[in-house]
């Protein structure tokens, strides 16, 4: 197995370099680059096992080259992103200077800043596209092919969570993702049982996300209880950074496990391979803002397939600008399982866009314009 892994790692590194080169080959050093900060406000507080979210800061890298504009979102996630560091804005300024300089591979110095790498990739594709919001030429998403997505159920009291479930089912979702781990476990089991009594596994796919909330010594027993409800999977049952315990869980679990936070901060090809080779998860969750953009995500995909792990893509509470960039790329991957891309309606001050959720799918309404005036206003 070792020689196969080594060859695959080498080919993967070449593929990632080629992927990045494609979006850089026409870049001219005379362009101007800048960044700005923007704060997104939640319509209703979003509860997770790590706390309640009421707002989220995000950043945009802006490129100008004669009459063309490019924009990319650096979706920093406070308290979770590997690059949530005090000098983050200094690094964004460095990234802008690197882009302006015409360096052959300007992202090489920013591997420790996954969200900045992603913003650079987006901005360059945006600049080179037919318009700033078409990042992939004739991609299936913007030419009429919608993406299946899960409905996200935030933590709260049982009454609120049940209200969310009822609303998502009425909207036509056939896959729900529930945040668990903050309430009493028996109460959460009771709620899941109620859903299952009304909707079989054939009618409704249920995923749960513990965000690392389960103690390691009782996690397996909880997974056994959850598996009785015919769930699809559980994300990150125990906190990240315990590879041996997670490996044992993945080997013994009756419920498929998806790694999420475990991937954050794992930046080198060899360390990614070692992580998947040790843990052997059933799935991994790819959040481009947290794992190094398109190129970092595609590297994870290559390695996941090597180790026979499944995967899907999830947004990380970006604005519609970042969500659009993720959705277009995701559509090029030929996905068929529901993706985690339904977060565009969470904010009061998001940007009006062609993105629209209907009947459990994310659509791109090509006849609906982007709110260019609002975007231009924050950029000037």
Provide a concise account of the structure shown:
The protein has 380 residues and is an alpha/beta fold. The protein folds into two domains: 26-128, Enolase-like, domain 1 (2-Layer Sandwich); 147-372, TIM Barrel (Alpha-Beta Barrel), CATH 3.20.20. It contains twelve helices and 13 strands.
Mean pLDDT: 89
How do the helices and strands follow one another from N- to C-terminus? HEEEHHEEHEHEHEHEHEHHEHEEH
Task: Output the structural class.
Answer: alpha/beta
CATH superfamily grouping of the largest domain: Enolase-like C-terminal domain
What radius of gyration results from the CA coordinates? Answer: 20 Å
Per CATH, the architecture of the largest domain is: Alpha-Beta Barrel
Question: What is the CATH class name of the largest domain?
Answer: Alpha Beta
CATH topology of the largest domain: TIM Barrel
- Biggest sheet, in brief? 7 strands, parallel
Main-sheet strand order equals 5-6-7-8-9-10-11
Q: Specify the overall morphology.
A: globular
Number of domains: 2
- Uncertain runs are none
> What is the tally of helical segments?
12
DSSP strand tally? 13
Spatial gap, N to C terminus? 54 Å
How much helical structure, as a percent, in the residues? 25-40%
Can you offer a commentary on this structure?
The protein has 380 residues and is an alpha/beta fold. It has two domains: 26-128, Enolase-like, N-terminal domain (Enolase-like, domain 1, 2-Layer Sandwich), CATH 3.30.390.10; 147-372, Enolase-like C-terminal domain (TIM Barrel). It is built from twelve helices and 13 strands. It has helices at 2-22, 88-101, 114-128, 158-170, 185-198, 216-227, 243-252, 269-279, 288-291, 293-306, 320-331, 372-379; strands at residues 32-48, 51-65, 68-74, 147-148, 151-153, 175-179, 205-209, 233-235, 257-259, 283-286, 310-313, 355-358, 361-364. Strands 5-6-7-8-9-10-11 form a seven-stranded parallel beta sheet. The protein has a three-stranded antiparallel beta sheet with strand order 1-2-3. Helix 6 links the parallel strand 7 (205-209) and strand 8 (233-235). Helix 1 runs antiparallel to helix 10 (293-306) and helix 8 crosses helix 10. It is globular and about 60 Å long. It starts with a helix and ends with a helix.
């Amino acid at each position: 197995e070792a020689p196969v892994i080594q060859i695959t790692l080498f080919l993967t590194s070449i593929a990632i370099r080629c992927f990045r080169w494609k979006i850089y080959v026409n870049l001219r050093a005379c362009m101007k680059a800048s960044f700005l900060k923007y704060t997104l406000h939640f319509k209703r507080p979003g509860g997770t096992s790590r706390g309640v979210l009421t707002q989220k800061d995000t950043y945009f890298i802006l490129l100008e080259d004669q009459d063309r504009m490019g924009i990319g979102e650096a979706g920093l996630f406070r308290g979770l992103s590997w690059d949530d560091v005090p000098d983050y804005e200094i690094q964004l300024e460095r990234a802008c200077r690197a882009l302006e300089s015409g360096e052959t591979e300007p992202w090489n110095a920013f591997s420790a800043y996954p969200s900045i790498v992603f913003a650079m990739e987006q901005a360059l594709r945006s600049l080179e596209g037919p318009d700033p919001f078409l990042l992939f030429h004739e991609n299936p998403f913007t030419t009429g092919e919608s993406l299946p997505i899960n409905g996200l159920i935030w933590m709260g009291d049982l009454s609120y969570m049940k209200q969310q479930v009822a609303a998502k089912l009425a909207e036509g979702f056939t896959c729900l993702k529930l945040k668990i781990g903050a309430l009493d476990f028996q109460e959460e089991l009771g709620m899941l049982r109620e859903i299952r009594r009304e909707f079989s596994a054939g009618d409704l796919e249920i995923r749960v996300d513990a965000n690392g909330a389960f103690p390691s010594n009782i996690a397996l027993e909880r997974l056994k209880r959850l598996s009785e409800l015919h769930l699809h999977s559980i994300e990150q049952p125990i906190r990240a950074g315990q590879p041996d315990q997670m490996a044992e869980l993945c080997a013994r679990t009756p419920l498929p496990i998806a790694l999420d936070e475990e991937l954050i901060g794992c930046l080198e090809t060899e360390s990614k391979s070692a992580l998947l080779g040790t843990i052997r998860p059933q799935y991994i969750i790819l959040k481009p803002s947290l794992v190094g953009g398109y190129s970092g995500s595609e590297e994870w995909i290559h390695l996941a397939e090597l180790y026979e792990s499944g995967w899907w893509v999830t947004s990380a509470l970006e604005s519609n600008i970042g969500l659009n960039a993720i959705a277009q790329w995701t559509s090029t991957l030929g996905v068929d399982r529901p993706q985690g891309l339904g977060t565009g309606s969470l904010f009061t001050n998001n940007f009006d866009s062609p993105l629209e959720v209907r009947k459990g799918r994310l659509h791109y309404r090509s006849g609906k314009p982007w709110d260019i005036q609002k975007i231009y206003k924050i950029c000037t």
